[in-house]
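Supplementary Note 3. Input sequence used for the single-chain structure prediction.
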Amino acid sequence: MGVWSILGKRKTMATNDRGLGVGQYGAIVWETVMAIATAARFRVFDGKGAPPLPEVAGEEVLDPPTAQKIARLVGLITRLLVIWRRRICFYRSYATACVLRSRGVAVALNFGYRWDGPAGAMAHCWMTLDGQLFRETEETARIYSAYLGEKDPSVRFWTDPGNSPGGHEKLSKKELAG
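The predicted structure, written as discrete structure tokens, is reproduced below.
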């Protein structure tokens, strides 16, 4: 069952025939900018673990095309604002998760780590919805398939089962908290 069929079974937000209105776009842009700033502040000053995600708002759930449109818009804004290209997946995923969670879509943030021989440590951040990849390729699920644990249901940690040094034991709550 794909993400969009899962979203489609939920109560959907009423939208007009033209999709999102100008006011909604403005709110999405503002929320995205604030989420990117929060993520950047967290990376610079806190540095470990994952920044807290907002609670899922219960009043509205988006229909699949609107959720996809919002995710594309957040991705575009992130590419424009995050001028340092390393770890853009973290900023994009965090900002998208914040914006969608504020609209009733319970996406989870996932962090993956792997060892890539001469290239060293590699990391990736992506979203899932009800255990399904959300706007991500199946390659991600193949690469980061060893589940390490979760900080809470909205933040999960993964690794590559074959190449990471130091084994794949489950992380303790203290290690996950950073």
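The chain has one domain: 3-177. Residues 3-177 form one domain.
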